Amino acid sequence: MREIVLADFEFEIGQGERPVPVCVVAHELRSGRRFRLMRDCLGPTPPYATGPDTLFVAYYASAELTCYRALGWPTPERILDLFCEFRDRTNGLPTPAGASLLGALAYFGLDGIGASEKRELQQAIGSGTWRDRYTPEEILNYCESDVTALERLLLAMWPDIDLPRALLRGRYMAAAAAIEHTGVPIDKPALDRLRDGWTNIQDQLITDIDAGYGVFDGRTFKHDRFAVWLSHQGIPWPRLDSGKLDLGDGTFRQMAKAYPQIAPLRELRSSLSELRLNDLAGGHDGRNRALLSAFRSRTGRNQPSNSKFIFGPSVWLRGLIKPPPGHAVAYIDWSQQEFGIAAALSGDTAMQAAYQSGDPYLAFGKQAGAIPVDATKTSHQPERELFKQCVLAVQYGMEADGLAARIGQPPIVARDLLRAHRETYRTFWRWSDAAVDQAMLTGSLHTVFGWHVHVGEQSNPRSLRNFPMQANGAEMLRLACCLATERGVEVCAPIHDAILICAPFDRLDADVATARNAMAEASRAILSGFELATDVKVVRWPDRYMDPRGVVMWDRVEQLLDHQAIQAERQIA
Amino acid sequence: MAETKLSVITASTAAPDPFDLDSLRLSQSFTETAGVKKLLRTVPVHKPSPQDFVRVQPSEEYRGDFPMIELKDEREEYIVARPRVGELAGELVVKTLFTAINRQGVVFLWPVRLPDPDGRQMEWHRSMREAAEISMDRWTRVKANKSLGAYEMTVAEGVMSDPVWPEVSFQELIKLAFRDRLITTTDHPVIKRLRGLG
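^ inputs. structure came back:
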């Protein structure tokens, strides 16, 4: 490397907006040069090199790189993000002071600046109120204190950094910056209308949705009424050890997948308890922008704020996603990604054949000898559903009792299904057992590109068993985002096993093809040549995106808001 | 930064093309790298449960005839060491021990009595032996039918995968199953009890 540049930006940022850089401080380690520039001194390119001979070092680099984009600067080609490396090194282990720069410094016993001073300054800068309280010199000094801290951290971490794979993680931070810069196009007037009317329509919404259930008393969800409704529907609901119905949102989410009639009730409950519409970040340009929080989860997946990110809250709110005039959005996801990853990485040829059949659930039933070889999805729908639920149960690490509750069958049926999975996919199970053994023997597991989880005191064998699928799925998504953004596709958001892109009508087909190729290429890279298929759902302006699980709720809310508007007009008249 | 520290960093950064994905790829072959194998430490000796479907290891190496004493109340089987057979001839019977496995993967030894020295054989024992033989090819359930006076067999009609047998020799299975139940002397507690001496 010709140059090693450590950099930090300070920037103002409004909710859902792009950052407005305030200053940058950078240290070039080899020459000892220092750069301290306030906004008005920032030119069209960085004052230091950004090519392949320069190592750009930052802590949570996507923040710096969104500033690069705001300034129109070229993205550095070699990025080392010490946040990603700190997360990789401590993933699964306790970090007494968290994973911020200060937390990382504390972890290594290094000196950091005072946390309270930092928060005060950060808030003043972020909100744009720093001008009355701090001089440019003070802002630059503060910014530089982070750069010198970064320098200390780099020296402490360097001996154990796996640079080639660290650079791949850094490359994703550039993609994350591109995605955050783009944002998700939303119907801002509809969001504003919803914010204004939400409080007033809640009671009516409960009345409307609950008409099909009869489980609410005012705004109170009544357990006994829900038990009666479940009984009438013949739905076996999971219970807690105490014997009471398990009413956690996770249970509602799982059960809504098995029993779609649950979905509107789940949407209503989560909306009433968790929806904070004012937090949903909508910028002035009609884009939802939220920090992706890359590498925050144990599997290395993004973990954006549930309340700020449009894909975070209840699924009916995804109806706010709407392409701008002349544009379309495309939601592209991998087909049965987890199953495909398990099949490919374990080397289980039966599982691979099931995946490549295009309908792994039906194929599994046939391979297990429970469904005739000439059966179709239509001719054997109930049987296929059982095998589908079994596959999903294995992916969730579910035991026989959980699967029995989910399929509404006695535990013996669930046990037989799980046994059929073990017997049909023996190679997969040997590999999966070995993954847990390896974690327990060596203290860690890693993905194909070196994202680690370490076995701490609180490690859960179920999540360790699932780690290779989830974490390699995260690798796949990150690589696909890199390839797609680098090839000029406007990626709006990564969502678990999918990406949302936006394109003008005349470029739509080409961009969808580029994005799908990127996803196919990423799957081949992770899975040693095994390619995962993708599905696409395109929504063209003036239509809005809609998740099927949220349609009922969205339509009711729309009706109520319309009704409310008509009443308001009448009152004025 | 001190020059020495900086040189540490700069010297190490001569990495290959950082985005050559093939060179970055790490193995996920946990089966090869974890290096563990399941240890078989318990081998029960009993006839199949009336609810279990079982298979019998068809290889001749995995069955053998043994002089045995059965404590019926305790449902315990003991092997009599060859040198003691003559002295205990009145107490023992000869049984074939088949290596069997159920659908849960539990390996056990299935004792089936051989005909008496005069060639007589109870229907119970004959039907049990027949069941063991059928189980070499098919998953079979064996259940006593008192009205019939014999064991009746049910074979699985559906396609069921073959069992996975542990990589353990028959001799090792016998050792594990009878490690505390081998009669080598006539003052063994079992012999004393049978003779009213214990």
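Residues 3-182 of chain A form a domain with the Nucleotidyltransferase; domain 5 fold (CATH 3.30.420.10). Chain A has a mean pLDDT of 92.
thumbs up if we can close this ticket
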